[in-house]
Design brief:
With about 70 residues, the chain is mainly alpha-helical. It has four helices and no strands. The chain has one domain.
Amino acid sequence: MAMLMEDVVEDKGYPKDGGYLNVWRLCFFLGIFAYLYVIALPNRVLKKQNEEIIKLLKDKECNREE
């Protein structure tokens, strides 16, 4: 389960190796509390995609006005 949580963290856009936290150890030793923490982490990939969509929509709106 701890290794699966590492994959979840990586899918959410956090670095798997080093960087943010050592998820495997955290999940292995803290169990359900660490799993809940990983689930609650914000999704960086989705946030970046939303920001790009908003930027494109604003650019398109500005082009329409011109």
